[in-house]
Amino acid sequence: MFAIVGIVVVLGAVIGGYLMEHGNLGVIFQPAELVIIFGAALGSFLIASPSKVVRLVGKHISAVFGAKNRIKEDYLELLSLMNTLFMKIRKEGLISVEADIENPADSSLFQDFKKILSNRKAVDFICDNLKVIISSNLPAHEMENLMEVDIEAHQHESLIPSVSVAKVADSLPGFGIVAAVLGVVLTMGKIDQPPEVLGHSIGAALVGTFLGVLMCYGFVGPMASNLEHQAKEDEAFYSVIKVAMVAFVGGAPPQLSVEFGRRAIPGKERPTFNELEDYIRK
């Protein structure tokens, strides 16, 4: 939603300011310039990107307009799930959650946490690490290292779309110059034309530079930043799981382990101690 609002604001400010100076919108609308700039940018992206990267960017680019930020309720549900798992393990032993983590979609324990269950990667992260705890006797510091490796691998993949889109954004001003130079070349072929014809042609050529810079800093670059913020939000989400699980492996009781996880939640999304306690009781 905010991305759409931002696009409207950028276009409104640029076009509005241009019209305030009695500019002619017909001069700015140059379909050939758009074809050159975006066609070349797309082509360079395909040259630079393996098929896996192309698929990742295509999958994530729509998240700029439709993804929802993590909110306090998401973290409350996550911590409540961790508390439920830890309490069951403490009362009935590690083997008691084996059936739950082998098939979480059919687990009555996970069914109470619909938002978390819909996040397949987060569920896999929780279940895979609980399987390690069940099948081995890793000390807390080694468990933390193992989970750090998992988070880093996930983060590396999550940042691929933002890095790729940022590189496309960086190329747009250059392709705008290419379009402008081609426009100047065409203008030179009209050197015998009247000044008003030459002026119109030169103005159309300069539109290429304008469009390249505008698309870079007004749209594509901010999209890359948006994707980066989403990737960092995911990293923070997994870090909460890691901190709570490492504390539990280290011998902390379930409530204290969950409190460790709560302290890892950044910013205003962090619930208070009482909010978490009330949520768990419910």
How would you describe this protein?
Helix content is 81%, strand content 0%. With 282 residues, it is an all-alpha fold. Helix 4 packs across helix 11 (140-188).
Q: Name the shape in a single word.
A: elongated
Order of helices and strands: HHHHHHHHHHHHHH
How many strand elements?
0
Amino- and carboxy-terminal Cα gap: 32 Å
Brief write-up:
With 282 residues, the protein is an all-alpha fold.
Features:
282 residues, mainly alpha, 14 helices
Please write out the topology.
Elements: H1 2-20, H2 25-28, H3 31-48, H4 51-60, H5 63-66, H6 72-92, H7 98-102, H8 108-111, H9 114-118, H10 120-135, H11 140-188, H12 195-249, H13 254-263, H14 273-281
